[in-house]
Design a protein that fits this description.
Number of strands: 12
GO molecular function: phosphorelay response regulator activity; transcription cis-regulatory region binding
Keywords: DNA-binding, Phosphoprotein, Transcription, Transcription regulation, Two-component regulatory system
Number of helices: 8
CATH class of the largest domain: Alpha Beta
Oligomer: single chain
Structural class: alpha/beta
Radius of gyration: 18 Å
CATH topology of the largest domain: Rossmann fold
Strand order of the largest sheet: 2-1-3-4-5
Protein name: DNA-binding response regulator
CATH architecture of the largest domain: 3-Layer(aba) Sandwich
Organism: Kitasatospora aureofaciens (Streptomyces aureofaciens)
Number of domains: 2
Order of helices and strands: EHEHEHEHEHEEEEHEHHEE
Length: 223
């Protein structure tokens, strides 16, 4: 577990709680150290208030070099910061002060979700709609043959919709399957990730909104 936290008291409390759960914790203070040790970690807890670089900028840099499960843990509670972090690839966002049990539960949820993701070659079929190809096994998306880079959670949402392309998935089901909590306040986060899928693929109709209920994979015209 890589803990990027410059507050000594918070770092000590987190390290102690995580150690009791069996995690080996490496605590770093600076963004440069986080980038140096990221590839050695299995999970990242990231504070946004760092002495050498804004945490959101570090998050963007981390996402260019690795796809580690990552939760932002910060005192910043503005919606703008939450949305920017989610768009940059954070798997979850926890605002200080928080209950340690809640953070541990969120870590466990993200670990279960990312740990159960299919590995390349897992045999799941590729799904196509129009010129968009979704490969759940390889965790790739292409549009007109060109790869599109989605965040981990954006891909998870799209892959869930592609499991049964004709089915409509309720918001509660998506939140339960992807976030691990159907009643999470991250309902807004789901909308952010859907918007990210539409924007990055350049296919707004790829995810169809079923008003008052949920989402469905859009049936796009052929290439």
């Amino acid at each position: 577990m890589l803990l990027v936290e410059d507050d000594d008291r918070m770092a000590q409390a987190l390290a102690t709680a995580l150690a009791r759960r069996g995690h080996t914790v490496r605590r770093v203070i600076r963004a440069a150290e986080a980038l140096r040790h990221a590839r050695e970690a299995e999970f990242v807890l990231l504070d946004l208030g760092l002495p050498d670089l804004d945490g959101l900028d570090l998050l963007r840099k981390l996402r260019t070099v690795c796809a580690l499960p990552l939760i932002v843990v910060t005192a910043r509670s503005e919606e703008r910061d939450v949305l920017q972090a989610l768009r940059a690839g954070a798997d979850d966002y926890v605002v200080k002060p928080f209950r340690m049990a809640e953070l541990i539960a969120r870590i466990d949820t993200v670990r279960r979700r990312t740990g159960s993701a299919p590995e390349p070659g897992g045999g799941e079929r590729q799904v196509r709609t129009g010129d968009v190809a979704i490969d759940p096994a390889a965790r790739t998306v292409t549009v007109d043959g060109s790869p599109v880079r989605l965040t981990r959670r954006e891909f998870d949402v799209l892959a869930l919709l592609a499991e049964q392309p004709g089915d409509v998935r309720s918001r509660e089901e998506i939140l339960d399957r992807i976030w691990g909590d159907a009643f999470l306040a991250s309902s807004r986060s789901l909308d952010v990730h859907v918007a990210g899928i539409r924007a990055k693929t350049g296919r707004p109709a790829l995810v169809r909104t079923i008003r008052g209920y949920g989402y469905q994979l859009g049936a796009l015209d052929g290439p």
